[in-house]
Amino acid sequence: MNQLLRRIFRSPALVGALLACLCAGLCALHRVGHELRFLERLERDTLDLRFQWRGPLPTRDATVIVALDDKTLAEMPALAERREGTARLIRAVAGYGPVAIGIDGFYTSPEQLLSEALVADVSTYLSERPDATDPASALLRRVEAETAGDAALVAAIADAGNVVLSMHLADDRDPLPNDPALARGRYGQELLGRHQPSATQRGALSLPQFNAAARALGVVTIYEDDDHTVREMLFARRVGDAVYGPLVVPLLALQQGVSQAETAYLPDARRVQIGPLRVPLTRWDGLLLNFRGPVRSFPQVSAVDVVNGRIDPAALRGKIVLVGVTYFGHDTVRTPFGGDVSGVELHATAIDTILAGDALVRSSPPLDALTCLLSGLLVALLFAGRLRLGPGLRVGGVLVVAAADLALAWGLFLGFQRWHGLVWPLLTVALVGGVGLALAYVGEAVQRVRLRRTFAHYLGAEVLEELLADPRLLDLGGARRELTVLFSDIRDFTGLAERLTPEELVALLNVYLTPMTEEVLVRGGYLDKYIGDAVMAVYGAPVPKPDHAARALATAAAMRVALTRLEPSLRARGIALKIGVGVNTGEMVVGNMGSRERFDYTVVGDAVNLASRLEGLTKVYGVFCVVGPQTRDAAPAGYQFRELDLVRVKGKAQPVAIHELLAGPDVVVAEYRELGLWQPALAAYRAGDFAAARAGFAAFAAANPHDLVVGLYHERLADLGEVAPPEWDGVITYQRK
Questions:
Q1: Mean pLDDT of the 236-254 span
Q2: How far apart are CA 338 and CA 305, in angstroms?
Q3: Where is the domain boundary, 356, 389, 423?
Q4: Does 248 fall in a domain?
Q5: pLDDT exceeds cutoff 70 at 667
Q6: 121 inside domain
Q7: Residues 242, 176 share a domain
Q8: Is 51 exposed, middle or buried (CB count within 10 Å of its CB: 0-12, 13-18, 19+)?
Q9: Are residues 500 and 638 in the same domain?
Q10: Based on the domain organization, do 580 and 541 belong to the same domain?
Q11: Are 610 and 628 in contact (CB under 8 A)?
């Protein structure tokens, strides 16, 4: 053991390699939750430097800040200090036609300009003299009107119809009130898995009358890093079983023209969906903001100018308007570009980042750890004995590796909005290089001493000095509605599961379900549940969509394309993945179902069961997608189908016509030659003219020898003989699911 340790420490390259592995392991632990706070703070400081080196970016023409600034306080302080003034401001902003209005502030208590007793006395006095016109009564009516600021603000919010109010979630506040309007601040879909957002039961929000008048609520709580700098915005905070999003989520939903139900928190996918917008999240449910620049990087107009009509109407029309405080002395935050930034600018930054699609994404823990390992190994290689590099070349090599780490981090940040780790790779380079140089120096000194002791008596001084100069060293309830349901399932999943280890099976499901889920969500579908390898999606609920059948068909076609994209990588792993999709439209019951303690939003009914049966029939007919008759009738122009059969499935007395989806407007799902031969052959079969049916099916089979459906009809005709039985109706009954 002692000899092994001596050999290790006599080799700076080997020690350096071990240190590189150690640093890579510590980096991975640091990134997965065991943070060394000092190093994390340094890493975030390097991120700030990257922003500063990059400089400001232009902003999109989507957000405008209406500022309660010093000019407003000087000319019309009531806009910032009185509820009536705020109501007047909201009405003025709404008059310009913005798409959404976000209020960065709370109204947690009633406005009280006079004591309650005095207000009551004034009201009593006036109620007893309703027709009095004396000066005193007129004056008291003015006083009474001045105390109605809360009512004026409620009316202004309700009349605007697109106002989003703020809420604050923090453990240092009082318990949240039981306000039904709280539901307006949660995500429409919350697919909680193993990851659960941080929870709280405390916070602050405006009075119930204000929340009831607002279109939605959003969290404006700001979370600072240890150095009091804001770099990300939290996008999920749990209160009970509900997950709440920031102010920007309902504002962007209004801007995109989607409802609250089309906002989704997807923790396993590490993102939030706002209609078509995808918001990438960190492991802690935050959005890393891509800051546009220092303070006042976004267009701002003074509130007093808005009220007095001194702005260009186009400045607010169709924009997301954020109303917030910017006057001197208000609370500000620090960003990578510096301090004195008003909180309302953070919301503008988040909106601009999401719309531009350039949110920062931090490199994965394995990638950061791999960078540490490679950097350390490259530095360790400089101390390999066979290279015989001198101290100058070794120092130069260490600097080159450090420069390469800097260039990599800078290039990924500038070109790909990637926050690649820099502190850990540089620390690894410094540690491996420093220890390597120290060991090399000590080793050389020891070697010199040993050589001197060994050869001092055998060599002359000049020869000994020459020898010494070159020593050798060495990561609950429901409503009836017409909807469309889609089921998809992997064929022969049981056999596939038997061939793979549990870890391989889970990895395969993640690879498969991720794009399939994305195709559902991006087309406005509601991901009802995963049933093992199966996906169940509902279209037209929770938000009614008149084109729900078209959305489901588009999803089925997109799933075929997504599967095609997956096939090369799966084939390389020896996996041939085939799926079947069943789509059906009809009346069903939709709503929250289950027990009082636990329930799910789902659909039930005969139409749902038929959709499941149709998915199962894809195996029988050997086709990718089978759709029901109502879905076929509701399909828009551009979709092509082939009628497969007239079937009576288990649990359903009436026969239904089923169809194969062949193509969408821009996607080919299945293609057949001489398709015009199919329908006459099928009609002859239904009519009992078996001779004509055989001839027609034979002609179609000649053009399409690999079609399993025509083979199925050949088998039936072979069993039926030449003459149709008396009770013949052309319907096939399936007794199995």
A1: 93
A2: 28
A3: 356
A4: yes
A5: yes
A6: no
A7: yes
A8: buried
A9: yes
A10: yes
A11: yes
pLDDT tens digits along 54-85? 999 999 999 999 999 999 999 999 898 888 99
- Which tokens go with 100? 């959404």
Torsional class of 550: left (φ above 0), alpha (ψ -120 to 50), beta (otherwise): alpha
Identify whether the C-beta of residue 515 lies closer than 8 Å to the C-beta of residue 565: yes
pLDDT of residue 596: 58
Asked if residue 567 and residue 650 are part of one domain, the reply reads yes
User: Same structural domain for residues 250 and 348?
Assistant: yes
User: Is pLDDT above 60 for 459?
Assistant: no
CB 221 within 8 A of CB 169: yes
Q: State the chain's maximal CA–CA distance in angstroms.
A: 128
Q: Do residues 669 and 663 lie in contact, with contact meaning Cβ atoms separated by under 8 Å?
A: yes
Tokens encoding 707: 């079609």
CB atoms within 10 A of CB 548: 25
Q: Is 474 a member of any domain?
A: no
Q: Are residues 649 and 618 in the same domain?
A: yes
Peptide bond into 542 cis (omega under 30): yes
Structure tokens at 627: 């759709």
Q: Determine whether 2 is exposed, middle or buried from the number of CB atoms within 10 Å of its CB (0-12, 13-18, 19+).
A: exposed
Tell me how far apart the alpha carbons of residues 92 and 103 are, in angstroms, rounded to a whole number.
14
pLDDT band at 134 (very low <50, low <70, confident <90, very high): low
C-alpha triplet 545, 549, 550: angle, nearest 5°? 90
Lowest average pLDDT, out of 236-245, 309-318, 525-534, 610-619, goes to 525-534
Strands in 295-366 per DSSP E? 300-302, 320-325, 332-335, 338-342, 361-362
Buried b (16+ CB within 10 A) or exposed e, 508-535: bbeebbebbbbbbbebbbbbbeeeebbb
Encode pLDDT of 256-288 as tens digits.
Answer: 999 999 999 998 888 999 999 999 999 889 999
Per the structure, the count of domains in the chain is 4
The structure's pTM equals: 0.60
Q: Is the pLDDT of residue 158 over 60?
A: yes
* SS3 call for 255: helix
Distance CA 545, CA 427 (A): 55
Distance CA(67)–CA(88), nearest Å, equals 14
Same structural domain, 528 and 572: yes
Sign, Cα dihedral of 603, 518, 358, 28: positive
The answer to whether the beta carbons of residues 232 and 282 sit under 8 Å apart is yes
pLDDT digits (tens, 9 = 90+) for 338-358: 988 998 999 999 999 999 999
Reply yes or no on whether the pLDDT at 253 is more than 50: yes
Task: Check which CATH number belongs to the domain holding 565 and give it.
Answer: 3.30.70.1230
* Confidence band of 289 (pLDDT split at 50, 70, 90): very high
Are 271 and 280 a contacting pair, CB within 8 Å?
Answer: yes
What average pLDDT does this structure show over 668-697?
Answer: 90
Whether residues 691 and 578 share a domain: the answer is no
Separation CA 552–CA 538 (nearest Å): 8
Sign, CA torsion 489/490/491/493: negative
- Residue pair 251/351 in contact (Cβ under 8 Å)? The answer is yes
% of the chain at pLDDT higher than 90: 44
Residue 67 is part of which domain span?
63-111+147-356
Q: Rounded to an integer, what distance in angstroms lies between the CA atom of residue 190 and that of residue 266? A: 7
The whole-number average pLDDT for the span 404-433 is 91
